[in-house]
Amino acid sequence: MRKNLRTVLRVENLRKYYGSIKAVDGVSFIVEKGQLVSILGPNGAGKTTTIEIIEGLRTPDHGTIEYFGTFNTITNEVKERLGVCFQENFFFEELTVLETLKLYSSLYNRSLPLNEIITMFDLEESLKKRVRHLSGGQKQRLAVALAFVNDPELVLLDEPTVGLDPHARHHLWDVIKHFKSLGKSIILTTHYMDEAHQLSDMVYIMDSGKIIAWGSPQELITSSGLNAVIEFPATHAHLFEETVVTGDVAIISTPDAPGAIKRLLDVGVENFIVRHPTLEDVFLKLTGRRID
Taking the model in full, what pTM does it have? Predict the structure, then answer.
């Protein structure tokens, strides 16, 4: 059987158990060249464990991973072609940002020009600072920059925009889109649904160690069966069946928005929102909770 040369990563029936806890329970997916795949799930869903197995940090109990259509284990050649931004990153705190970039660049046979990385990730003003003096957002930008320093073919970004302000987060989106346009493949885990919607070609939703839904963001929304979505105070959740309550907000999806609005107004509820369904609504319907 001829291999698909566009398949950069193939994960089949991956399992990782800790006693009775099924952290990863039969996960399968593929990543194609130039594709960005997001893995979404509540805390404890198995996202980070899946990513760490792919990175070679954990050993699976069962299943196979094929890298670049050739390799079934993390060899040195695979490491040369991978870029990684961990959920928790550790640095040599006494090095400057420039020294850190030079150190990581020296570890690879191939690397991008550092001036490109510095400009792209907006690190110019931080170059002479020791890492221990960086803000949380600056450290996060450095961590993501280091994932791309070796010009990798496949990049794994585990919650890369945590701690970034909205401007920095949107700037990083542009950087990710740029690398994707160059044919780089990216796996992203994120707590931001708008991020997944904006960047993803494919979204896999995980819960309790399993993938429970997948598709493009729009495919997931279209196939969810959700209609108009109405948010209103949770104190009035009893007015409708199949109401999802999250915090002090109740959420319903209804094909009869005018009728639902009339019912709310009849009991004096005026502070409600009517909108189109989003990827977050799909996630909420499938898992019964929002990502924290």
Answer: 0.87
